[in-house]
């Protein structure tokens, strides 16, 4: 199973929702908090191709995007396959 990385902030409802979905799937994930870390936020913007929001999610080496994109993968039935890689 691919390991996920999720960049979050503490009180972000979208971050919480994305983590809950990954937990429901039994996914192994690393949470990387970026609260108040300006250098990490700048790096995250660069890594994500310009996105300034959280969460930002990678599954294995695949950039998923944010919570909406993660939920869309689940609705299309594609999340399990991505996690299984």
Automatic annotation (TrEMBL):
Residues 6-64 form the Glutaredoxin domain. It comes from Litorivivens lipolytica. InterPro entries: GLR_AS, Glutaredoxin, Glutaredoxin_subgr, GRX_bact, Thioredoxin-like_sf. Gene3D superfamilies: Glutaredoxin. It holds the Pfam family Glutaredoxin. Keywords: Cytoplasm, Disulfide bond, Electron transport, Redox-active center, Transport. SUPFAM superfamilies: Thioredoxin-like. The keyword Transmembrane helix does not apply. The keyword Oxidoreductase does not apply. GO terms for cellular component: cytoplasm. Belongs to the glutaredoxin family. Has a glutathione-disulfide oxidoreductase activity in the presence of NADPH and glutathione reductase. Reduces low molecular weight disulfides and proteins. PANTHER family: GLUTAREDOXIN 2, GLUTAREDOXIN-1-RELATED. One of its GO terms (biological process) is cell redox homeostasis. One of its GO terms (molecular function) is glutathione disulfide oxidoreductase activity. This is Glutaredoxin.
